[in-house]
Amino acid sequence: MKSSFIGRVALVAYLVIFFGYLLGPLFVMSMTAFNSSAFPSISPWACYTYEWFDVLFKDERILNGIRNSVIIGIGTVILSVSMGLAAALVLTQVWPKFRSTYYTIIIAPILIPGVVLGISTLVFWDRVSNFLGPSTEAFLHNGIFLTVLGQSTFIASYAMLVFVARLQRFDPGLTEAALDLGATHTQAFRKILLPFMRPAIASAAVLAFLASFENYNTTTFTFGNYPTLTIELAQKVRYGINPSISALAFIIVMLTIFAALANEAYRRNKQRNEDARLKGVPRKAGRVLPSFLTGNPAAIIFVLLSFVVITMFWTAQSYDPGECKARVLAEKQALAAERIEALRQQRFQQRLEAAHSGVDIFGRSTVDPTVTEAPAAPESNGAFGGVFAPTNLNSTAPAAEPESNPGGAFGGVFAPTNLQGTDGN
Amino acid sequence: MSKPRPFSQFFRNNGKVMGSIMLFLVLFWIVVLILLPQLSMLDFSFRHNLPPSEVGGPKDVYTLDNYKFLLFGAEGSDSRFNTVDLQVFVRTIIAAIAVTILDLILCYPLAYYLGQSKGKGITRLLVVMLIIPYWINEILRAFALRIIFGDAGLINDVLLLLNLIQEPIDFIRADVALYAGLGYAYILLMLFPMYNVIESLDRNQIEAARDMGASWIRIHRRIVIPHAKPGIASGMTMVFMLSAGALAAPQILGGPSSLWFTQLVYQWFNDSLNWQQGAAYAIVLLVSSIVIVLTFMKIFKVNMGDIGK
């Protein structure tokens, strides 16, 4: 009994750690989109703001990147889904001796590093355009063309896997029956196989589009003059970041959550309808909730989350963080002034020490007022966690007591490194 | 069937139009997109980096120089071996293996838990929660970790606040952020294959073993792990190949002094514009990671056909 309790606790702790690792970073990143501090962070929380969404929607390069990503995504979906479907159909018919070699070849692109795929595509089409002459160069060196080909090389393998799973449940007798009844092969394909494969085609298309949308390794070699959204993001993240990227991340996270919840709610609802039909009892609506929502937690979360987002939109129209920002600015200025004052005191003290080296009492009495000032500050400036981090306080605390060695204590408080450290915030 | 005649059989099964469309698409994929580019990259890696006017001229001959450079460095350099690049290479491979093992340890209990407790509502919610990070852009996931691990990041601030450390720890320079980021990026590719396989394991086997008095460790060693081997192999292969070939996470989370091997390839292509040298490095990366995967598959007796299931 006791050991099972420990096991339960361990399991919960493990789940918390695992999902914390998985979802925590996304949550923190989403929060930074609403902090007015110019560097994406949440720990010195300044003001709640929507301004980074404004910055995001005015960013030409991001918008252009989204456009390119969508064009490339559509091209990749068409090419990789059709190649994946053909390859899966051939796999069911290829003669057994050759089967495993064939499977190895078409599964290999998943395992080849994306960097290698990008490079090989670039090198190969460069060769082709050299071979065919300069008239084809404009087309063959086009970033969209190369990126679609490079991405389709491995995305087609994903699509193929989806189709193979679905094809295992296909009854070839259906096609044979259609052929016996006089349908042409094309008709049989269109009327029998394609409708059966439709769900798989839909999920393969979604998978392919998302894989194309977020691909970086291959695209970074092939994009040419058409940087995709991922390329633009990588550039921004590598060279100077601001929270508008967090704003974009928040939007993407929300869209993903909504899509996942909607999908789950839809499936749950369908399944429950099915169950009800099998039992022969029509589903009754709950007392409070409409029938779609009863016993469907995903749908309930979906609706609640929609309310939150709508509220956010609504408040965003009227909300103005100007006042808060002004206050933060004032606090910052006060802090800076304080720091300058402290620095001046320090210089003064240094000069005094230089002049009367060894005159301990005099030096201490001149500097004492700042000591009583410094520890009092944190109460009013809770936001600047970094500046008044415990390290700082620790070294100031003993300084307030005259018994301790004043020279050493002040050295800690006003050491140049200390000031540099706080400047970072 | 006395003599197999695959092509006529194929066209009889599928009709002329559909058969040729299918064949065309598959051949286009295999030959034009998979085989020829790899071969042309291989060919490229054995050539000199020549100005366009000399391509095809008398100087355009095959050479091993690009591979020699990786091993021995530039001619006339002080050290005998190209220690800088070789170190990066070895570090990349070892770190990728470490990331793979880390992911395996993290994922196995969850895969087992999810796979064995099917049907409950909480399980489905957990699976939905797992899928969400999978669809977030790789760049954004790396960015999220950078916010957390940065100099003025969340972890440092919390540690400072709790008075556990006196100075912010430079997680980025220590490569902690990089390893956490790589593990984070591909963790689900480890989880899902394992989950799928363990889900198909008959629970009665475990019950039976327990009734016979098998210990907890023994049940896993003798029943669950042998059954889950294809899934484990599939997940480990994917995570290893992807982290060895990762580019985004090292670029964003890597320390200034430590490079990932793919970053060297990237530099040869985009900064030095020496495609031949870059192709040689890419070939080395591709071949060595395939060799490592095949060796491990041989040791643990897993077939290629199990991958991707």
Describe what this molecule looks like in 3D.
The complex is a heterodimer of chains A (425) and B (309). Chain A is mainly alpha-helical. Chain A folds into three domains: 32-242, MetI-like (MetI-like fold, Orthogonal Bundle), CATH 1.10.3720; 243-320; 322-423. Chain A has helices at residues 2-32, 51-57, 60-93, 96-111, 114-132, 137-140, 143-167, 172-180, 185-214, 219-222, 229-238, 244-279, 297-318, 322-355, 360-373, 390-396, 406-414, 416-423. In chain A, helix 1 crosses helix 12 and helix 4 (96-111) packs across helix 7 (143-167). Chain B has 309 residues and is an all-alpha fold. Chain B folds into two domains: 1-45, no CATH class; 83-306, MetI-like fold (Orthogonal Bundle). Chain B has 13 helices and no strands. Chain B has helices at 6-14, 16-45, 65-72, 83-116, 121-134, 138-149, 154-161, 176-199, 203-211, 216-244, 248-253, 261-271, 275-299. The longest helix of chain B is centred in the N-terminal third of the chain and has 34 residues, at 83-116. Chain B is globular and about 75 Å long. Chains A and B meet through helix 1, helix 3, helix 4, helix 5 and helix 7 of A and helix 1, helix 2, helix 4, helix 5 and helix 6 of B.
CATH class of the largest domain in chain A: Mainly Alpha
* Relevant CATH superfamily of the largest domain in chain A: MetI-like
Oligomer: heterodimer
Q: Architecture of the largest domain in chain A in CATH?
A: Orthogonal Bundle
Helicity level of chain A, as a percent range? over 70%
Alpha plus pi helix count of chain A: 18
Tell me the Rg of chain B in angstroms.
25 Å
Which protein chains are joined by the largest interface, and how many residues does each one contribute?
A-B, 101 and 99 residues
Reported CATH architecture of the largest domain in chain B: Orthogonal Bundle
